[in-house]
Amino acid sequence: MPTISMFYGIIIRMYLGKSEHNPPHFHAYYQEHTAIIDINTCEIRDGGLPSKQLKLVLAWAELHKEELLADWDLALSGEIPFKIEPLK
To answer: How much is the pTM?
Structure first.
């Protein structure tokens, strides 16, 4: 699962391949916490992050929604998604 961005100790990744399920989403990791975030709605689908880190991830996702959707399409076809600029 390639890492597409990292910021403030948070790692953002996407699985590759057609076996990945809809809706389009990414995985966010912070220490021992893991969350799956829906790209279209920028809402948590599964798991959880501490409040501060969740706010950062959701703000980042809103800013990069188009890039995330393009990466989703690449990942579904088995291609490595592009890196996305971290939150600054």
So the answer is: 0.92
